[in-house]
Amino acid sequence: MTDAHDTAADSPLRTTGGAPPDDGGSSAAEAPIPLLEPREGIPPVVADEAALARVIAAFEAGSGPVAVDAERASGYRYGQRAYLVQLRREGAGTALIDPVACPDLSALGEALSGVEWVLHAATQDLPCLREIGMVPTRLFDTELAGRLAGFPRVGLGAMVESVLGFVLEKGHSAVDWSTRPLPEPWLRYAALDVELLVDLRDALEKELDRQGKLDWARQEFDAIASAPPPEPRKDPWRRTSGMHKVRRRRQLAVVRELWQTRDRIAQRRDVSPGKVLGDAAIVEAALALPANVHALAALNGFGHRMGKRQLEQWQAAVDRAKALSEAQLPQPGQPVAGPPPPRAWADKDPAAAARLSAARAGVSALAEELTMPQENLITPDTVRRVCWEPPAVVDAESVAAALAGYGARPWQVEQVTPVLVTALSAEAP
Fold this sequence. Notes:
Order of helices and strands: HEEHEEEHEHEHHEHHHHHHHHHHHHHH
Number of helices: 20
């Protein structure tokens, strides 16, 4: 244990005291302390059933909330699976688990059922944790808590520094966590990510309570914990970067065929799709509609270091798209559920545009008054939907019902309803 960590273990938490700091950082008088080593050192990586059973027993016997984090290999591997899971709980210490060697952690999840899980940016980690059998019934999201409390910087490092006064080393956040064996500096980084997470949770709970927002936060956390897994995205190929350049349906078909071919290859090889073929190359081929392999090889993203066999598979995808009948071609735009883009409102419905303008101004002012981002006060999509199709009779009861129908939490309904009642009464100029 280093001297810096002796200090970290023994010193009282330095909470914000009053409102969150304006700059999200610590004061010059209290220089932040580097956190260099986990309290009990770097634990061995759990990679077999016997070690996992010991961890499950220890964490089940622990007390208080459990800090949970997961590391993925985004940009390196296909999908968003977890390649390391970190936990820490009072009485159990820290555990680092290899979910490749131990792919079923449902017994650990069951042992922690009913325990509050502390995560930072929970919605990022919950999908990969769910895949290995870990699903919380209760949670506390320290990033979301920071947003609701009005902190301007809500990354884990910034929050630990501004709230607790310690500096986390963040140099390994974007490494390839599928690497085996994992280097010791990476494991140290991973262990430190959960070292102070429960301490941060406790301090943020006090700050939210001081601001009268603790119940709001609990409603948000409950909504995250009870949310079902997201539906698979329809037509994911339409999210190819640079799609705004692609106008013709035949070109759209080329994007779709290349994207789907790339996705199959990436899944089979377990690599990030971008490492198989870049989005820019897909769009380039769609715009050019190359007639043969030679023409394809002349395009950016295809010729350099790409073998003949690879070029042929991409040209075959282009040719399949070119051979489709008109009826088989994709439509230029996805059918959009809900209101049209706001930029079109002034022409389509001037009264709705006036309502939206008034609603945005009112929500912005209220969010500033409550010291939180507008999107955490109420989602922009909810505001648009209520303004585009307001209740037949605009009053507090009908607006509250509309907000609740779109998934707004009770605290959001209570805060936003008066603003929207006023906005929905606005008349077009």
